[in-house]
TrEMBL record, chains A, B:
Enzyme Commission number: 2.7.1.169
Name the record gives this protein: Pantoate kinase
Catalytic activity as recorded in UniProt: (R)-pantoate + ATP = (R)-4-phosphopantoate + ADP + H(+)
Domain of life: Archaea
Pathway it works in: Cofactor biosynthesis; coenzyme A biosynthesis
Species per Swiss-Prot/TrEMBL record: Halorussus caseinilyticus
Taxonomy of the source species: Archaea, Methanobacteriati, Methanobacteriota, Stenosarchaea group, Halobacteria
One MF annotation (Gene Ontology) recorded for this entry: kinase activity
Length: 278, 278
């Protein structure tokens, strides 16, 4: 790191269920739903540059939401994001890159924005890029976020399931968030709101996992591969569901390894996105 | 820890400036203002008991807000709180004990409350006990919290200064929060709102420290001892102010030790109050 570079860490986020809420103002658009933030996440380093460029895991990359964040802050920067999470598999990597860029660029360039303002910029950038609707506000909060109302901090409203648990995950392939979001989401959203009502009545981890499984099935988002892995975890007495939107299974505790899968291990992450100590 | 005991950690919190907002409903009452959450905090362990009892650092203790939290949840428990923070010196120890009790008791007794509901219970307990107005919601959030609107999560609104920094603190004696809060707070609140407007315009650490110093002086809360220590830190080019309400000086970085004081060291705490892993 050079003297004027800054670094931020943003937790990964898997969504269990959600509903889509459109609005002309990208700060008001978003999703309701619930999921888990993860100790596996994205580290973003930002330093001043003559022209904006970006790397993801040391390879040149173009994440539209990141470019939009830098434009909104009026700066040109070199952005380097690194992550152990699978990309394009439902872990909110694009949202994390956008939010980490906002936090780190704010410090590098002394932009003087508040945390809510930076979250709003990253959320709007992600919505306008069509790559996500609720990851950024969840990643800004940490824990096991419940998104009660959609949108950036000024409009949205959040709660959380009070829990801290080990998590395992297994990715079977890639899946495009924007392809699903650009289709008809009416049925999906109807189911998502039903599940939210249930979780708010009983905000516990078992209820989150159960409503997530029901959502995946009822909204017709389960693939046969994911369904088979989830079934194996349940057969061993574990709790698992599908990450929205990715070909990914996540499980509480050691649910996947107990069912014989070679899964990645992490924990829920108690903090939201944060700058690293200078 | 026994099998059915649970443990939570709650960061300490020093307030730099504040204004008082009264309301009949303790969830709507509270304070606006800003401060820093600290990696030094309070660990609270809760286990079922025939009759409620409490210890603070292995001594029998009576913290009214803790008793009120257990009553609100309808449970009897043995509560053990431990902390390295000075008690009665402006670090929000009573709020931390109340919030940690709410989180840990919710798990021990399977109360099924959400995080917002637990924060609301602890906030109301603290307000009704007269021991604090804004610590609980700040401690639930973590980071460098700005309390934009008073009250529990359903009513309050928060933002944050995006920063992570080393902190030093020095306590010169005890001071009663309830004695100040039960007096006339009109002038204090007028000054506090002015400072909040300034910080919202420029949400940075230097502005937080400057507005905090101005508040302490203009609201006439500085004692000669605190003023002298703060002056010594400033003379060495450091940033310091007084913890509201305590005979305590807090400084950014190594401001106190550089001025020759034997201070405690910690960091701002990026997460809010949280359960510990079972």
């Amino acid at each position: 790191m050079t003297d004027d570079s800054s670094r931020a860490f943003v937790p990964g986020h898997v969504t269990g269920f959600f509903s889509v809420h459109e609005a002309d103002d990208p700060e008001k658009a978003g999703s309701r739903g619930a999921g888990l933030t993860l100790s596996d996440g994205v580290t973003v380093e930002v330093e001043p540059a003559v022209e904006t460029s970006m790397q993801l895991n040391d390879e040149p990359a173009a994440v539209e939401a990141v470019t939009r964040v830098l434009s909104a802050l009026g700066v040109e920067a070199r952005v380097r994001a690194t992550t152990d999470l699978p990309v394009g598999a439902g872990f909110g990597v694009s949202g994390a890159a956008a939010l980490g860029t906002a936090l780190a660029a704010n410090r590098t360039f002394d932009c003087g924005r508040s945390e809510n303002e930076l979250v709003a910029i990253a959320h709007a950038a992600e919505v306008e890029s069509g790559t996500g609707l609720g990851d950024v506000v969840a990643q800004a909060r940490g824990g096991v976020p419940i998104r009660l109302d959609p949108g950036a901090p000024e409009y949205g409203r959040m709660d959380g399931v009070p829990a801290w648990t080990r998590i395992e995950y297994l990715t079977l392939g890639e899946r495009s968030t924007s392809a699903v979001l650009s289709g008809n989401t009416d049925r999906l959203s109807e189911v998502g709101v039903d599940k939210l009502v249930r979780l708010v009545e009983e905000p516990t981890l078992p209820t989150l996992m159960e409503t997530s499984r029901e959502f995946a099935r009822e909204a017709d988002l389960l693939t046969p591969e994911v369904e088979s892995v989830v079934g194996d975890v349940l057969a061993e007495g574990g709790e698992a569901s599908m990450a929205m939107l990715g070909e990914t299974v996540f499980a509480l505790g050691n649910g996947l390894s107990r069912a014989g899968y070679d899964a990645e291990t992490c924990e829920t992450y108690p903090a939201g996105a944060r700058l690293e100590m200078p």
